[in-house]
Design brief:
The structure holds 2 protein chains of 2 kinds.
Chain A: H1 2-16, E1 30-37, H2 43-51, E2 56-62, H3 67-70, H4 73-76, E3 81-86, H5 92-104, E4 107-111, H6 122-128, E5 130-131, E6 146-157, E7 171-179, E8 182-183, E9 188-193, E10 201-208, E11 211-216, H7 222-225, H8 228-241, H9 256-263, H10 267-270, H11 285-288, H12 293-303, H13 319-335, H14 344-353, H15 356-360, H16 374-379, H17 382-390, E12 402-407, E13 412-420, E14 424-429, E15 434-438, E16 442-447, H18 463-477
Helix pairs in contact in A: 9-13, 12-13, 14-18
Chain B: H1 2-18, H2 28-32, E1 53-54, E2 68-73, E3 86-88, E4 91-95, E5 101-105, E6 111-115, H3 118-122, E7 136-138, E8 141-145, E9 150-155, E10 161-166, E11 181-183, E12 186-190, E13 201-206, E14 212-217, E15 247-249, E16 254-258, E17 280-285, E18 291-296, E19 312-318, E20 321-329, E21 334-339, E22 345-350, E23 357-360, E24 366-368, E25 379-381, E26 395-397, E27 402-409, E28 412-416, E29 430-433, E30 442-448, E31 455-461, E32 470-472, E33 476-480, E34 485-490, E35 496-501, E36 511-515, E37 518-525, E38 528-533
The chains are: A alpha+beta, B mainly beta.
């Protein structure tokens, strides 16, 4: 049986006309760690697929077996990449190790049902670049993903310039499809489907922390394992996350510009996030709406600005480095203007039902205790807003920090800081009232670490509702 | 034409009648005894000892709350003004941005003359902006050290250029931001450019002719003692700027000058060794520029801990013995007391959070910390590169016996990275960033007992201030903050007695002077020069 399959595969591979992956950077075989568990699969056929990849050696471990130990950063160090084909409901045991590996830039490929792992952990979904919850907790209103086995459809190469799909053509598969899953809007989708039973986004590249990530939805059983196009995708994905596949336009995952931002010393003046401090906001939509924005930024970095503290970098950094830096700034700025396709009308309902209006005004345009949101979605970007909604409290802007005061007559008030200096404090309290305090009229001023904005986790605001909400705010800003 | 001549005549007559125009030629002896004429502010720190203290007491603790604005001078520029004005017989001399020097009537702020230097606009721009921290006065002349690395003498009556001498090549990263120090017949300057791979120096020029009298390289060349503290050729590009005005002891005939960081700032692997005389104070013979002694605060620095704050000179009894002291709140976070006759280390005490060193040993050398956050490619360190204190001028008040300075409480992450030297380019060797969600940086005016380093009080600023400190015989401390407040504090308690907002961050040090018995307090903010007086 096994032999028979092998021959069949070889034949198909030879006849497929798929260009072999460019793997010539290093002749050393890639070492990959294959992690399974939590979902049944045809093990022989699956591992056979990996055995067939040239220049790859793999170690197969199971969650609940050796996997947790192997994922310790010290152990995982010896592997070039991780491949996840698990569907594990609880990932606390290894998630921190996995996140630490992502800090180090370890590449990872997630296949098929691995998108459904760790449904209760938002960070895991962020890591994969997408998220699915199969099976609903009793009494919960959470959106769940759907699956449909034995569905035949044509997989469409959405991005033909991606290193992973280079030279490939659309191909037919019969596989288990999913729908109703969440995909990060920043993920670079390179494979899609038009089948109504399937979600559109089938596969993507993405960067989480420093790690290149690929997710491929395909791969339920041997029918797909043996599909040469699928094999090619998996193989290239592995090489790509290991940094062994020549990168081309559209899939640039490493952003040298971001590193240059740190090493050229931009942060002390322009802020860690380039959103401006002593120097101007480098991701400002005003700046990047100029037709010649990139050239302008390149010129300023090269030549400096006379009469200011901005020095010329023409000889400090190479031309390509300056261009990369400008590209990075421009991309981050433009990412904020990326349109979200979601239900604007529903977003409006969400805005009111989860209580945004209480602090941000009836349409999001007003702002009082909280900031005006419709311009924020444009200026700071969708990802910023997402992060702020899920996990408010870190890097709160100066004029929205939480402050508590005790007045001379013993009254305690908590609110949002509008402005402050050595002698005075302006604060908006919970009722929206503005207080102009002189500090010598106060007994105490306490700078709280926590934001007044409540955290909206997925139980309060499911992913699709969040997207609808963002689409509404974006729409309202136009 | 006749009318114009006539008006000139009338002006000349009025000035003669008033008898106050700066036709006076300030002598070296007068600067050496500046305390005798507190109506004037004759040199950068008010006197040669670096005290920034005035014997004027017309404005004092009782009446300071009545202090009100007399005038504002703005030349159309806004930006970071860092200048300390000089005042000589009612005329104020102050450089604003791009080395524009103004002579102003100290009572009204009206312009008498202006000197503009076109070549400065063509010189490379630098990370600190086109600032100047002041001018020097000697013998009817005003001396300026320029952004294009010249030393310039101007006629104090007209602003006309008398001589100019090029000290170094600006395209190689050399420039000046400091106020020169006029001592004897010399004009002493220290160069800026510690972020550009320069080889730092302190120069003395003949005040009459502009001829270079001597040069002290802050980094010794081959064959000179100290050169062995540099690996290979790294001494050639090792930095060691001397960008803040030093002090002078007439009796010992020594000039005390702070030397800044080694280069590249953050990356030290290529320059293993102590890197003398970076981050040191050097004592130089005034006549020859020869090194008498040095004391290095931070050997082999990788955190940009320049030793460029004004070294303050003070005589006091230490263990029953009268000693000539040099005190400073160093950028590395420690307060130091040295014997200024020979550089003997007497005391060091931290005045702010310090993580890079556990303490200072009995020999004055730091005992390095083993904090794991300090190793590797991301070095989280307190104080951060801007230091626990920086160039803002400190003050010593003989009235309270306390030492006052602007403290900075800020930690940062430094990101060292190897980098090649290219002539005239930034030679940082890495970058830096703030600590995500770390404590908000803030600052204070701190009052210390100068003999023990013990804190007497501190007045907390909301954020980090770049303003210097002035003390007066009125029992007051004047300073400013980053939100634009200028304030007067009780010198004994730190209590705020007066404040006013100047509409832009204050990054300069205040001075005081008087005209016809009326005392003024003057300070620059982003929006210009402001002068205050009682009604």
């Amino acid at each position: 049986m096994l032999t028979h399959r092998l021959i069949a595969i070889t034949t198909v591979l030879l006849g497929s006309g798929v260009a072999p992956a460019q793997t010539a950077v290093s002749p050393d075989p890639l070492k990959i760690l294959l992690i399974t568990g939590g979902h049944p699969f045809e093990e022989d056929a699956f591992t056979e697929m990996f055995r067939s990849i040239k220049n790859v050696s793999f170690t197969h471990v199971r969650l609940g077996g050796d996997a947790e130990r192997k994922l310790k950063p010290e152990e995982a160090k010896t592997y070039d990449a991780l491949v996840f084909y698990d569907m594990n409901q609880r990932c606390e045991a290894y998630l921190n190790d996995l996140l630490a590996l992502m800090e180090q830039g370890k590449g990872a490929v997630f296949l098929h049902h691995a998108i459904g792992s760790c449904p209760d952990n938002a960070e895991y979904g962020y890591l994969v670049g997408g998220r699915a919850r199969f099976g609903k907790p009793p009494g919960s209103a959470i959106t769940t993903a759907k699956f449909k086995a034995n569905t035949s459809y044509r997989a469409h190469i959405e991005d033909r310039n991606s290193a992973i799909t280079m030279g490939m053509s659309d191909f037919d598969v019969t596989d288990e499809v999913y729908s109703n899953y969440f995909v990060n809007t920043d993920a670079h989708v390179f494979l899609t489907s038009d089948n109504p039973l399937s979600a559109r986004q089938l596969a993507w590249t993405w960067q989480y922390k420093k790690s290149p990530i690929v997710y491929i939805q395909l791969g339920h059983d041997h029918v797909t394992y043996e599909n040469p196009s699928y094999r090619s995708l998996v193989e290239r994905a592995i090489f790509w996350v290991s940094g062994r596949l020549a990168n081309t336009a559209g899939t640039a995952v490493t952003m040298p510009g971001e590193k240059l931002y740190g090493s050229l010393g931009c942060a002390p003046c322009h802020g860690n996030d380039a959103r401006g401090a002593r120097g101007p906001d480098l991701k400002s939509p005003v700046l990047w709406s100029r037709g010649d924005a990139k050239q302008h930024v390149v010129d300023v970095i090269k030549n400096g600005v006379r009469g200011t503290e901005m020095p010329p970098y023409a000889n400090v950094a190479a031309d390509w480095e300056i261009r990369e830096l400008a590209t990075f700034l421009g991309r981050s700025a433009l990412a904020s203007r990326k349109a979200i396709s979601a239900d604007v009308r529903r977003g409006r309902e969400v805005y009111h039902s989860v209580g945004c209006a209480e602090c941000h005004g009836p349409t999001g345009r007003e702002g009082s205790l909280g900031p005006e949101l419709t311009s924020l979605v444009t200026s700071k970007g969708v990802d910023y807003l997402k992060r702020k909604i899920r996990q408010p409290g870190s890097d709160t802007p100066f004029n929205y920090a939480t402050v508590s005061v005790v007045t001379k007559d013993g009254r305690h008030l908590t609110g949002v800081r509008r402005n402050e200096d050595t002698f005075s404090l302006q604060m908006v309290d919970r009722s929206g009232r503005l207080h102009l305090f002189l500090k010598d009229e106060l007994r105490n001023v306490i700078h709280e670490r926590k934001s007044m904005m409540p955290a909206y986790d997925e139980s309060r605001l499911p992913p699709d509702a969040l997207l609808d909400l963002l689409a509404y705010l974006q729409n309202a800003s136009d | 034409m006749i009318m114009r001549s006539l008006s000139y005549l009338i002006c000349a007559f009025l000035i003669a009648a008033e008898g106050t125009l700066a036709l006076r030629e300030v002598t070296y002896e007068e600067i050496a005894t500046a305390a005798k004429e507190p109506q004037n502010w004759l040199t950068y720190s008010g006197d040669y000892r670096g005290w920034r203290y005035s014997a004027l007491d017309r404005v004092n603790k009782r009446n300071v709350k009545q202090l009100g604005l007399r005038w504002v001078f703005n030349n159309g520029q806004t930006g970071k003004l860092e200048a300390t004005p000089l005042v000589i017989d009612s005329i104020m001399y102050v450089p604003l941005l791009n080395n524009e020097v103004y002579a102003l009537d100290g009572r009204t702020g009206r312009e008498i003359w202006a000197y503009r230097r076109p070549s400065v606009l063509r010189s490379p721009s630098h990370i600190n902006g086109p600032i100047s921290r002041g001018v020097a006065a000697l013998g009817g002349r005003i001396y300026l050290a320029t952004l294009d690395a010249y030393v310039v003498a101007l006629d104090a009556r007209t602003g006309a250029l008398i001589w100019e001498t090029k000290a170094a090549e600006p395209s190689q990263g050399y420039y000046f931001t400091l106020a020169p120090l006029a001592v004897k017949d010399k004009i002493v300057v220290g160069v800026s450019g510690g972020e550009y791979g320069i080889r730092g120096f302190i120069d003395a020029y003949d005040a009459a002719t502009g001829k270079l009298a001597w040069r002290f390289y802050t980094i010794p060349g081959p064959g000179e003692p100290g050169n062995e503290t540099w690996k290979g050729d790294t001494w050639k590009t090792g930095g060691g700027p001397a960008w803040v005005t030093g002090t002078y002891d007439q009796g010992l005939n020594l000039i005390y000058w702070g030397v800044g960081n080694p280069g590249p700032d953050y990356y030290g692997k290529d320059r293993e060794g102590d890197n003398l005389y970076t981050n040191s104070v050097v004592a130089l013979d005034t006549d020859t520029g020869k090194l008498r002694w040095h004391f290095q605060f931070t050997p082999h620095d990788v955190d940009d801990y320049d030793a460029t704050i004004v070294p303050v000179l003070l005589d006091a009894d230490v263990d029953g013995q009268r000693r000539k002291l040099l005190i400073e709140a160093n950028r590395n976070g420690f307060y130091y007391v040295l014997d200024r006759e020979n550089g003997t280390f007497l005391l060091a005490k931290p005045f702010v959070r310090v993580t890079w060193a556990k303490g200072i040993g009995p020999d004055g050398r730091p005992i390095l910390s083993d904090d794991p956050q300090l190793t590797g490619s991301s070095r989280q360190v307190c104080p951060g590169l801007f230091g626990g204190a920086n160039w803002p001028s400190p003050s010593y008040s003989p009235l309270t016996g306390l030492f006052y300075f602007t403290l900075r409480d800020e930690c940062l992450i430094h990101l060292p990275k190897a980098m090649p030297y290219r002539v005239g380019d930034l030679f940082w060797g890495g970058g830096s960033k703030s600590i995500p969600d770390g404590p908000r940086p803030s600052g204070a005016v701190m009052a210390l007992n100068p003999l023990t380093g013990n804190k007497k009080w501190e007045f907390r600023h909301f954020s980090v201030s770049w303003a210097g400190v002035l003390t007066t015989a009125g029992g007051l401390v004047f300073s400013g903050d980053a939100e634009g407040y200028c304030m007067a504090l009780n010198a004994l308690t730190g209590q705020v007695l007066w404040r006013t907002s100047l509409g832009g961050p204050i990054t300069a040090a205040p001075i005081t002077y008087s005209v016809n018995g009326k005392q003024y307090v003057a300070i620059a903010s982003r929006s210009g020069v402001f002068a205050f007086a009682l009604p």
